[in-house]
Amino acid sequence: ATAEQRIIPPRVTSKGTSKMSGMQQLVSLRNYFYLGLYDQVMKEAKSLGSLSGAAEIARQAYLYRAHVAMGNHAVVSKEITGSSPTVLQVVQLHSTLITASETNKGMAMEKLVELVEDGSLASDPVFPLVAAEMYLTGGDVKEALKMVYQGTSLDMMGMTIQILLSISRTDLAQKHLNKMVDIDEDDTLTQLATAWINVSQGGSKCAEALDIYQDLQEKFGSSMLILNSIAACQINQGLYIEALSTLGAARDLALKWKTKISPETYINTMICLQMMRKAPEAIQRIYGDFKKSAPDHPWILKQEQMQKEIEKSKKTYS
């Protein structure tokens, strides 16, 4: 779905009933997706039922992207078939990339490159987003950025900002945020992007970001994404006790949703414990749980590499 979907009053017919276009009906679904409220995505997608044309494809895309985010790869594999719209098959391809062996990962990326070079999906509003997500999963930040950098929708500009912040280009991210504000400063994704940049700038800006996240939490409810974002702001402000409480709520939510505790929850918890000078054993226990849950996570791999280098140095100078 294109992101120029503003929250506007539905058209009123002569009979006084509200009649919304397909894309306008997706506003809540889109909000839930970007806030990480994936259980609400499932409910909203079901309540909308089948729409028509591009709106129906967008509805399914949000639904299956949410399944991918939750790790429900079996659902994506089963329900998306060869007769599904191509962009949904790309969502399935992303799921395959996440779960496949190294050989099949390579095949998935080769297929993505073919689709990008083919160009037939260039005007599709969803394809550049899913393609960028795939490139990020594959560790190719440059290609991910190329997919969305020239995008004019709030969705593509939002993803552009996330990528730019990951490579410490806050200056360029701010320029894209200015464009988003010009389109719709009250849009949920614009609010999120504002908070992301505020956090990256640190200092008093973290307090502003915290206000945004808490406002969104009050309006829409809690998700692991929102709770971890709030915790990150609290950590930046030295509010470690509050942050631990927030992270505890994120763990409880994972249990409620019957999903894995997110990597961000583990990492933020360890940072909190370190800043509070808690016993190394407590931190190591969290690290062990994290490693068991996500052994191939980049943060874990980096820690292991650093440990190997430390051990190598010890042997060199012992």
Provide a descriptive summary of the structure in words.
The chain is globular. It is mainly alpha-helical and 318 residues long. The N terminus is likely disordered. The protein contains 17 helices and two strands. Helix content is 73%, strand content 1%. The longest helix is centred in the C-terminal third of the chain and has 20 residues. Strands 1-2 form a two-stranded antiparallel ribbon.
What's the arrangement of secondary structure elements?
Blueprint: E1 11-12, E2 18-19, H1 27-34, H2 38-48, H3 53-70, H4 73-79, H5 86-99, H6 102-118, H7 127-137, H8 141-148, H9 154-166, H10 170-184, H11 188-201, H12 204-220, H13 224-236, H14 240-257, H15 263-275, H16 280-293, H17 298-317
Antiparallel strand pairs: 1-2
Summarize the structure.
This protein is mainly alpha-helical. The protein has 17 helices and 2 strands.
Structural class: mainly alpha
Order of helices and strands: EEHHHHHHHHHHHHHHHHH
Give the tally of β-strands.
2
Which strands sit side by side, in order, in the main sheet?
A: 1-2
In which range does the helix fraction lie? over 70%
Question: Percent of residues in beta strands?
Answer: under 5%
Alpha-carbon distance between the two ends: 60 Å
Global mean pLDDT: 91
The outline comes out as globular
Specify Rg, calculated over alpha carbons.
21 Å
Number of alpha- plus pi-helical segments: 17
Largest sheet: 2 strands, antiparallel
Low-confidence stretches: 1-19
